[in-house]
């Protein structure tokens, strides 16, 4: 059990709020994507959940227990951070042992097996690793941690396409074998869209969306065709993006596509198509208006 | 003019070769993708081209002049490295000024305009920047450098999807306005495949492929269907990957798809489809065999 509840959470640095009055429930045994623009506050949110920094207002509970009042509850979570917290001179195999001292369920055999499969030299020191292999070493520790909640912050930074594919497959294998809560904070959205169940989008210091990927994708579509007809179609719709080229236009709508709508689109001689998650993210978090 | 010729280039560290007997011509005014797995030697190659490290054997010339004998010829190139070479305490606007002292054609106005568009605070020090904004500051300096050859090593590291899209668009705009040679070394292949003209793949200490993207993509295809029939079809083909599921198979072939082949595929009741560049890269640089 590891139900994470975030209630009216705010974090300010001086006068500036990084997150403001944010509430969110992270369900158990689900794979989430945590999405947001550079600087949106994703890492701040993850640091608050894991009690690495303290909220200005509000609280985070795991299974009903406030993380600020009980350090041990946070041990249910393993948080792979983008910044390294270990000394540069530590070797990868020393990191494994070091982690086992904090996470007794750490699976050393699994960590060594993954090291082989990723092709990492575990005798190397951190400071000798490239960006890609530094990410790989942290991925391995997180997967093998034995924690009930795994949080990955930018896990695929510097990983080549092979390594990314292997990571995604291994993540699913690990999750299928022993369901757990997984939170992936990443900018490489399209590649992970098929493995996510839930999506949490952070924008303007708060949660913009918290929904199942399936729901999000099935509640959006793009219509394209002659500008005049697209304009006519979208005028009373929840349009989130428009692209124009000569006298053609493509508009993305954030609504369910009903049978009546399909008929109307066909009557107007417009085309309809699906939207990819990464595109949807760009439209939802962008500043541009539908004109 | 900036024609880069690499002749029988080798680089060894102790007994271990990072690159061996590599020859390559990089044509002018073309956009190249430099692809390779983690640790394949891409950065070593770029460091040799820009005379930051010295070859064990062979040489690199720019417009016929050996880069090792003439430091100034290297000034035709601006190389955005993954590792930071500037002091941590330098501010972004100081980096602009510093670059202008080495690259007299550095366009300060353009750098400031890009800074605004990317939303970076140029008064910040490097050490205060996140991975994404650190990449952005280096992208700006490279684009504004005024050099004839721009080399980007992992430019989109940590960039959100908006920023990546803006970078790709700006790169094309910059190139269209003033054609130059651009080399992009990146692991996020699929997103850039549409902007590349040439692809250079590094594998086993040498060049595996150096060809136009169009050629590569039009000389490959995937056939899928019943395993037995796929096996029959591929037995005398240059197969580079096979995926199986129950009694179905998909095989990717690295050959031109002729009219006769199309007829044969249709006779065998197989489906044919195109291959994406990132997938092709994975197949070509992988260790797996076609079975």
Automatic annotation (TrEMBL), chains A, B:
Signal peptide limits: none
PANTHER family listed in its UniProt record: ABC TRANSPORTER ATP-BINDING PROTEIN ALBC-RELATED (PTHR42939:SF1)
Alphabetical UniProt keywords: ATP-binding, Nucleotide-binding, Transport
Organism per entry: Clostridium collagenovorans DSM 3089
Domain of life according to the entry: Bacteria
Record-linked InterPro entries: AAA+_ATPase (IPR003593), ABC_transporter-like_ATP-bd (IPR003439), ABC_Transporter_VariousFunc (IPR051782), P-loop_NTPase (IPR027417)
Protein name as annotated: ABC-2 type transport system ATP-binding protein
GO molecular function, one term: ATP hydrolysis activity
Domain ABC transporter: 4-229
Record's keyword annotation contains ATP-binding: yes
């Amino acid at each position: 059990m590891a139900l994470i509840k975030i209630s009216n959470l705010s974090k300010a640095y001086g006068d500036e709020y990084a997150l403001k009055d944010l509430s969110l429930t992270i369900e158990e045994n689900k794979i989430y994507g945590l999405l947001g623009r550079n600087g949106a506050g994703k890492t701040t949110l993850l640091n608050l959940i894991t009690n690495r920094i303290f909220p200005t207002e509000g609280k985070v509970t795991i299974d009903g227990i406030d993380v600020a009042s009980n350090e041990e509850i946070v041990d249910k979570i393993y948080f792979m951070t983008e910044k390294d917290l270990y000394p540069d001179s530590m070797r990868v195999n020393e990191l494994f042992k070091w982690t086992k001292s904090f996470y007794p369920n750490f699976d050393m055999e699994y960590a060594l097996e993954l090291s082989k499969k990723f092709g990492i030299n575990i005798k190397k020191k951190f400071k000798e690793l490239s960006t890609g292999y530094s990410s790989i070493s942290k991925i391995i520790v997180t997967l093998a941690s034995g924690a009930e909640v795994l949080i990955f912050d930018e896990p695929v930074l510097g990983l080549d396409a092979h390594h990314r594919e292997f990571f995604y497959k291994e993540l699913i294998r690990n999750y299928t074998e022993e369901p757990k809560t997984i939170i992936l904070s990443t900018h490489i959205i399209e590649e992970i869209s098929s493995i996510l169940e839930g999506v949490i989008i952070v924008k303007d210091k708060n949660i913009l969306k918290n929904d199942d990927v399936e729901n999000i994708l099935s509640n959006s579509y793009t219509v394209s065709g002659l500008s005049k007809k697209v304009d006519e179609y979208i005028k009373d719709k929840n349009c989130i993006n428009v692209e124009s080229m000569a006298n053609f236009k493509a508009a993305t709508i954030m609504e369910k596509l009903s049978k009546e709508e399909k008929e109307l689109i066909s009557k107007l001689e417009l085309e309809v198509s699906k939207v990819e998650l990464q595109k949807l993210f760009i439209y939802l978090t962008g500043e541009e208006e539908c004109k």
